[in-house]
Amino acid sequence: MENPDMIRRVAILVLTCAAVSAPGCAGPQAISTPASRQAGAALPRPVADPVAADALTVTDPPQDRSKGTPSTNDDAASGRSGPTQVASNSEGSLVIGGMVGQVNGQPIYASEVLEPLDDMLTTMGRQHSRESFRRVIVRPMQDGTRVIPDRLWSIVMNTLILAEAERDLSDQEQFFVNNMLKERREELLRQSLGSLTLANARTRQRTGRDLTEELDEQRKAMIVGRYVHQKLDPKLNVTQRHIKQYYRSHVEEFNDPPGRTLRMIRTSKARHANRIDEMLAAGELFSKVASLPLNEKNPQEAGLYSERAAGDRIFGIESLNEAALGLAEGEHSPRITVGNQHVWLYVEKLHPGRQVTLQDAQRNIRNRLRQVQYSHLFNEYREKLRSEGSFTPVEQMTEVLVDVATSLYAVGP
Question: Whose CB has fewer CB within 10 Å in the chain, the N or C terminal residue?
């Protein structure tokens, strides 16, 4: 039986080789030794804008670019599992199947970028023409993210941070991490009755990776998390003055006034109003009557007017305000006539007010302010890595990946 994953991997490898072997390109590693580079020209290296704090997920692309030179460490590629060497051109540029760029000498493979996006790209490929597909996978979507560039930036930043974190790891810490991963592996094997095959299958179903790959991801997360926190935590400084200032400037966040859940029945037809009076007098549930077509006010939600109406000026009409404020929980008003409208109000639930003192709130405020400071420091740290790190321009890698993704996923004309 043919393996779809294997077919997709082979397709990515072949298409990447084709995409980067066009005239004027020395192959997938033309990023390191094209003619222009051999002549001493420098390729641009992006510099990023700040992004949301997440040590393992970096999505926001940069807005500016500065001059820089990507790494030319070809030896790193040979030490990394992935697509194999397929050719070598006459100029000596090594052609690596599926390789689209490098970060500090570490190769980036097309499959590494595209496989986690497989479901999304498959759906988009069915919804768009080929030309439209090429545009939508690089342009900002409704949430501001960009499919291919953001995934590339995530890989670039993760690699840069991981490299620093591993250099900083002591022998004792390395021993501790390895022991934890060993225990985790043994536990997963025990859960799979000692079967590595079953453990791989379960892990792949849960994460999309086999056991070894998943443990490697956990290792990276542990190392990066430990390094970033050790680097940034000592710089965090939230004082009591900061906490008091936040509390005073966010009074509404810690003080909820009393409120009520209100439902309303409204009609402009006198005969409907008489029928509504009859049903309510007969003991019909207000919510049931409010759900009937007789009600002209939100019958699809049983006349819901507000989940939590607060204050003593709920309506702009005084008679409605007086009626609402005079009702106990579970009571409804008699008919209220306002012009040619007939209105009934019902208080489904009364909500008591809530006031959180500074003493009770300060722990949450401190944690929130620490997180804000941490995000700011982390953004500065990543900006520094981007300016100092050596990597293939994301724009250049994106061009290759767009060609590969279009060939793989775009099924329209």
Answer: N
